[in-house]
Amino acid sequence: MKLRPLADRVVLKPEEVEETSKGGIILAAAAQEKPQFAEVVAVGPGGVVDGKEVEMIVKVGDKVIAGKYAGTEVKLDGTEYNIVRQSDILAVIE
Description:
8 strands, mainly beta, six-stranded antiparallel β-sheet, 94 residues
């Protein structure tokens, strides 16, 4: 199954979360920080969104930093994804 985002949406695959602290303590799932770094796996077409023309700047394969609690989390075929608006992406890592 493939995810095809609509309008100005972007599908992100979050990077793996550290399971141990810097001091070597194993962290429970509830204590782990939500990842902000992700890879873009799909990009919507852009177009007119809320009465404004949106040009998609990010592209598939970009490494990005997204807002910590932005978007909608989905699980598809055992893989977790986060669907966000392009405006929720804070930076592209070069």
